[in-house]
Amino acid sequence: MTLRSCCLLCMLALPALAQVEGTWDLVQAPDLEAQVAAATKGLRPAEADRARRRLQVVRAAPRRITLRHAGGRFHAEAEGEPALDVPDTGRAVPWTGPDGGTYLAAVRREGKALVQTLMGEDGMRAWTYRLEGLVLRVRVESKGLLLRRPLVYTLVYRRAPAEGGRR
Questions:
Q1: Which residues, 6+ apart, have CB-to-CB distance to 59 below 8 Å?
Q2: 14-158 has which CATH code?
Q3: What's the rounded Cα separation, in Å, for the pair 109 and 114?
Q4: Per-residue pLDDT, 14
């Protein structure tokens, strides 16, 4: 086995947490207003209004996210939201969201992806982080008691330039 193939095997064996670590800038997002409208279509007006209010936090994709892993903990920061800091074991811990609600937050590995979940009284939101070449694809899925089907969309990020302008 050559040094090059050994290094390649080491890179492929890196845990999902290490692969997505860093600061990422948004480069592609769907029309989230249209996604929310589609997810609430067919609900009675009062239910649709309530569901839209609960989905309010998905209406603006964070332009920058920072993901870190250290000391057995996963740390995620996104614009406009309290930082998330949870064990990397998959164990759920309480987290207070931007709406003041308390959720159970957890992070687990799923193959080469990293899945972050928030569970609340009336629903669940999951972010699946997957590194694809030079981009980080983040699949977001929201399920709620009021929704007839999950709200699902994908955000695409590129690594943010390092200090001094280099990537």
A1: 32, 33, 36
A2: 2.40.128.20
A3: 5
A4: 36
